[in-house]
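Journal club side-thread
Mid-discussion, someone asked how the predicted structure for our own chain would compare to the paper's figures. Pasting it here so we can look after the session.
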Amino acid sequence: MRTRVSALLFVAGLACAGACAAINAESSSGTPVVAPSGTGECVVLLHGLGRTYRSMAELASAMEAAGYFAVNLDYPSRQESIETLAATTVPEGLRRCRDAGASPIHFVTHSMGGLLVRQYLAGNVLPELGRVVMLAPPNRGSEVADALRDQAWFKAFNGPAGAQLGTGADGIAARLGPVDFPLGVIAGSEHSLFDGWLATRFPGDNDGKVSVARAAVEGMSDMLVLPETHTFIVLDAEVAAQTLHFLRHGRFRRPGAPAAQVP
C-alpha cells in the first residue's frame, strides 16, 4: 500500500490528484488576468503532470509583482499525450501574451511542463521567445517512470503523457534532442518523506522523482542545484528569486552576486 501511495505522489501530491480543469489564465487569486495593451514582458507558466495552475500560483504572483504579465495556464495533463498537450496549451499561452501586447515571451515550467515547451519549440519558430526556466524537469526522462511504467494502476492514473516520461529510446525526452534556446534549469537534490523509497531506486542526487543528471539537457545556458524536493520546489522563495534573475540576465545568481528581489 505504501508503494502505491508514494507512486501516486510521483505526479501530484495528495492535494492535486483530481483531474485538471480546462485551460485558463488566472492570477494567483483565481481572478482572470486582464492586462492593458502594450504591457511589458510576458511569462507563461506551465505546471507538471497531475497538477493544476494553483501549484504555480506563488510563482505567478512573484512574476506579476516583478512587472511581468503572468499567464498561468491550466491543462488536462493526464488526458492526452505530450505532443497533443504542447500543440494545444502552448499556443493558448502565446495568444494571451500577444493579445495583451506583451513581449518578449518567457516560459517558467515545473516538471513535465518543460517537455511541453521543448516539444512545441522543436517544431515551431517563436520570434518573440525570451528565456525559459525549467524547475525539476525530466529533460532526459525519469527513473521513477521507468520503475513504475508497467503497473496498470500507474498507467491509469497518469494517462498517455505519464507513459512517455521514461528514460529509454521510446520516451519523448530521447526524441527531443538538444535545446537551442536560452534555458536555465533548477534541479532539486532532496526528497520528501513520502518519496524516500523512490529516491533509493536510482543513483546520484535527486529530488525523489528526477535525478539531477537527468534534469540537465544538452544546450542549456545554465543549471543550478538547490536543496529542494520535486513537489515543493515551486513554493521556495530562493527558487523564485533565481528564476527572476535568469529571466533578467540569462544566468543564475552565484554566491557574492546581488540577489534578485522577490516583491
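Post-session note: The radius of gyration is 17 Å.
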